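Quick illustration, no need to memorize.
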Amino acid sequence: MKITKETFLAEIFNDEKARIILEKHQVPCLSCPYAQEEMNELTIGQICEMFELDSKSLLADLNKELNKESDE
């Protein structure tokens, strides 16, 4: 699965590897009670824009880690 700016947070939220990467990039939505309710509407791109996060770096890390399994 390729993660893009259009990927909804809900699509990767329950993946432990993704959560570790999101935490590394200081994505605040992981513990926000409002985000928990809006997860199906919030995209990675929107989150990066709202919190001024480096979307290219975040997406590169997510895709590298989450696609390791399919490469092996």
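Helices lie at 9-12, 16-24, 33-38, 44-50, 55-66, 68-71.
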